[in-house]
Amino acid sequence: MSPKVSKEHKEQRRANILNAAKDVFIEHGYEHTTMKHIMDAANVSRGGLYQYFLNKEDVFETILEEDLQLNLNELEEVLREKVHSHWDLLLETIYGEERQPNDDMNSLAPSKLEFFITGRNDKRRREFGKARYYNGLKLYSAIIEQGQQKGEFCTKFDSDIIARSIIAFIDGLAFDHSILPKEDLKMKQQSALFRDYLKTILGVE
Amino acid sequence: MSPKVSKEHKEQRRANILNAAKDVFIEHGYEHTTMKHIMDAANVSRGGLYQYFLNKEDVFETILEEDLQLNLNELEEVLREKVHSHWDLLLETIYGEERQPNDDMNSLAPSKLEFFITGRNDKRRREFGKARYYNGLKLYSAIIEQGQQKGEFCTKFDSDIIARSIIAFIDGLAFDHSILPKEDLKMKQQSALFRDYLKTILGVE
Amino acid sequence: MSPKVSKEHKEQRRANILNAAKDVFIEHGYEHTTMKHIMDAANVSRGGLYQYFLNKEDVFETILEEDLQLNLNELEEVLREKVHSHWDLLLETIYGEERQPNDDMNSLAPSKLEFFITGRNDKRRREFGKARYYNGLKLYSAIIEQGQQKGEFCTKFDSDIIARSIIAFIDGLAFDHSILPKEDLKMKQQSALFRDYLKTILGVE
Amino acid sequence: MSPKVSKEHKEQRRANILNAAKDVFIEHGYEHTTMKHIMDAANVSRGGLYQYFLNKEDVFETILEEDLQLNLNELEEVLREKVHSHWDLLLETIYGEERQPNDDMNSLAPSKLEFFITGRNDKRRREFGKARYYNGLKLYSAIIEQGQQKGEFCTKFDSDIIARSIIAFIDGLAFDHSILPKEDLKMKQQSALFRDYLKTILGVE
DNA sequence: AATGAATGAGAATTCATTCAT
DNA sequence: GATGAATGAATTCTCATTCAT
After folding, report:
1. pLDDT tens digits, one per residue of A154-203
2. What residues are annotated to bind DNA (chains A, B, C, D) (predicted)?
3. Residue ranges of the alpha helices (H) in chain C?
4. Do B161 and A186 touch (CB under 8 A)?
5. Is residue A102 over pLDDT 80?
């Protein structure tokens, strides 16, 4: 007895739900999204939704995990290739990623902050937060370390600490951007200053 | 004609509720706190609680406003006095205040982040967030500007932008600290790096 | 030990509360009026209000009773005097009284309807309703009966039944007027028709 | 793809709830009925009830609308058919309908009066009241007008005004009947008088 | 007498999750 | 597998009434 519905179909359906859910999370934020919102956006029944995911948390975690995986892949790819300028790579990594609040507010970033901060007392949620943090840490420190090894960056400061500071600054900007309109933030000028700062401590130019 | 209990008594009770509520918010976070939690912690009946505050948001906003007011008072006081070292004042302001996630996790900071980020789509909440941001901005930029005027800091960078970057970094640290245990953060070393950074762009020493 | 506050003062206070309460009932209706509304309107404290009245029902009943008493006094007075035209007296009684929804909507009539109809399952309330009804009945039938005795009205119909019909019609108009704006009711023309009707069955002219 | 239960089943359940709710409204009146009452009477859970109706008002309005629709259908039907006696039709319409407080007190009429009168300050509620009034008006005036056109009724009075007076009288009777026991009302005799009155102004016989 | 703080019962509403079909 | 009706726990908020001072 072969299954009524092919595995591909299920995968497709699952992916559809995740895409719709992502839009919903972006629109309403994590806390204020309900399973009903997701059902409606994904055009799936209540029961259907629960067939693929245990609950709202499960849906969000799945989206997170896929994002995380993308990051990791990217990192591997990036470091395997011949890197001409680690400085450019670093900037790309910072600015091309959603950790840097880009101009479009169609970003899941605020919901992620929400997810982690509202769940800070929950063991499972904290594990996720840790994974997210160390993932970013690995990404940035790998680039910096390689740059240092290649002699492109100076070794005055520990790559780990620099990476952490990058994360802190990016998270802060993401937070401020989440609650304030772009116009209020002078993002460009802050970014320029931050770039100067990185140049200084990495000994670039 | 005289009231049953003195005005002081009422103020006292109100303050008690706020204190208890603050503890509850610190323990459960903003979203997961219910009025019941506050009632129980403050040892006040449902009706009693609603006599003093409209709803959970009102309770939290009151706490925020008092904190904000403390900040403002402090700022005024600070700037009226003769300042020996604006650099010391700046560090004190950063590290002495809760904006810097201090060692004790008995801080309301995570709940504040939560409050603003979960309410980012709410007009009223955004106004509060804006007030919080500009309040901090005013505080830091006033110190920097005065330091620049006195010739203690160099004027290479705009005080406004530096202040914004300080806020972003502190918010980021607060966020990361909210979701990760202290041990994971190497806070001390990050702070040292940040201090160096500030020294550089302010031309201190 | 004479009382601190004179009896007159108490009476005055009580009357003040009743006046304020009446306005409140007119504005919000019976059901939607709260003790708080009355307190605020009467500028009296919660405890003060409860010193004079048991509850909202008690306040309203007191107002009703005073109205009822006015009616009764009027009736007695009216019937003791020499009546030139019972027809005119009847019209005056109908149109001069609030049972006829007059142009001004500053009438307690809708709240009275509300009071009786929402309380129709309550023994005490029903007794009041009965009193109100029989009071009106007595008023109208007395006039009609006297008119009949004096030969001014024909005796074709029982004065009791005519009086009841007058009440039904007036209550109906009051009800319709309570829920519809005056413009929708063509009150004048309805009244004219009703007057014609009464003339016919009373054999006037 | 097919729903768990048939559409009929859902309709059935909805109808069950409405029936149960109607009984509850008749027993407790509109204001004193709670959603809990309806839940218990309909044997449906809290959530179940809210799946079908938004709130108490919604439940009641649904009942009202269905009644209204019945009325309208009846009217159309009635006027399309060949009418032998418009006088009989008029009487039937008055006495067969709940607008006339019939002997059985199992009528929703008092709750309807309650619904409209307690909601007289509410825009939405007033719209409903208006619809109710004009619906009745249309019904009665259509019959009268047709009777006049056919020469069965005289045209001395405007059909519109007569219809309004019928409504006022019926509403008044309904009100009085709501708050007084039948025995107190001499309904029969009032009705007889009213019939006479109608005969007179319609020129019947 | 007067005050108004405090109480708590009760009503409304939402939403995650289950489960019969 | 899919559906969506049904459940009920959890929460918010209101208000009449009491009572210590």
Report:
1. 999 999 999 999 999 999 999 999 999 888 888 888 988 999 889 988 99
2. 34-53
3. 7-28, 35-42, 46-52, 56-80, 86-96, 109-118, 123-149, 159-179, 187-202
4. yes
5. no
Which chains does D contact via 3+ CB–CB distances below 8 A? C
Rounded CA gap, B108 and B99, in Å? 10
Distance C6 CA to E1 C1' (A): 11
Q: Which residue of C114, C167, C186 is in closest CB contact with D117?
A: C114
Distance of C1' in E6 from CA in B135, Å: 37
The pLDDT score that the predictor gives to residue B110 is 94
C97: which DSSP letter?
S
Cβ contact A–C (≥3 pairs, < 8 Å): no
**What confidence score (pLDDT) does residue D99 get?**
43
CA of C135, C1' of E10: distance in angstroms: 37
pLDDT reading at C98 higher than 50? no
Gap from B36 CA to E5 C1', Å: 19
Residue with tokens 């399973």: A35
Per-residue model confidence as pLDDT tens digits over C40-88: 999 999 999 999 999 999 999 999 999 888 878 877 887 787 788 899 8
User: Mind telling me how many Å the CA of C194 is from chain D's nearest CA?
Assistant: 8
Chain A neighbours, 3+ Cβ pairs < 8 A: B
Chain E, protein-covered positions (CB within 7 A): 1-21
Distance CA(D67)–CA(D74), nearest Å, equals 11
The reply to whether the CB atom of residue A47 sits less than 7 A from any atom in nucleic acid chain F is: yes
Q: What is the mean pLDDT of chain D?
A: 88
The 8-class DSSP code of residue D168 comes to H
Question: If you average pLDDT over residues C113-141, what whole number do you get?
Answer: 92
pLDDT of residue B171 exceeding 90, the answer is yes
Nearest to B201 by CA among A173, A197, A162, A157: A197
Inter-CA distances, A39 with A43, A55, B118, D47, Å: 6, 12, 21, 18
Amino acid at A82: K
Please, are residues C155 and D133 in contact by the beta-carbon 8 Å criterion? no
Distance, in Å, from the CA atom of D56 to the CA atom of D44, rounded to the nearest integer, reads 14
Question: Which residue is the nearest neighbor of E6, CA to C1'?
Answer: B48
CA distance D68 to chain C (A): 17
> Could you tell me which CATH number the domain at D55-202 has?
1.10.357.10
Per-residue pLDDT of chain D (205 residues; tens, 9 = 90+): 444 556 778 888 999 999 999 999 999 999 999 999 999 999 999 999 999 999 999 999 999 999 888 888 877 887 787 888 899 889 988 887 544 445 555 689 999 999 999 999 999 999 999 999 998 999 999 999 999 999 999 999 999 999 999 999 999 999 999 999 888 888 888 988 999 889 988 998 7
Q: What are the distances in angstroms from CA B18 to CA B60, B61, B112, B115, D46?
A: 8, 10, 15, 16, 35
Q: Taking residues A62-76, report their average pLDDT.
A: 86
Locate all alpha helices (DSSP H) within chain B, ordered by sequence.
Answer: 7-28, 35-42, 46-52, 56-80, 86-96, 109-118, 123-149, 159-179, 187-202
* CATH (one of 1.10.10.60, 3.40.50.720, 2.60.200.20, 1.10.357.10) for A56-202: 1.10.357.10
User: Residue with CA nearest F18 C1'?
Assistant: C47
Least Cα separation, residue A197 to chain B (angstroms) = 7
Fold agreement (C1-53, C56-202):
no
Domain boundaries, chain D: 1-53, 55-202
pTM, two decimals, is 0.89
The full DSSP string for D52-84 is H-SSHHHHHHHHHHHHHHHHHHHHHHHHHSPPS
Q: What is the pLDDT of residue B111?
A: 96
Q: For domain B1-53, which CATH number applies: 3.40.50.800, 1.10.10.60, 3.90.226.10, 1.10.287.1700?
A: 1.10.10.60
Name chain C contacts of D136, Cβ cutoff 8 Å: none
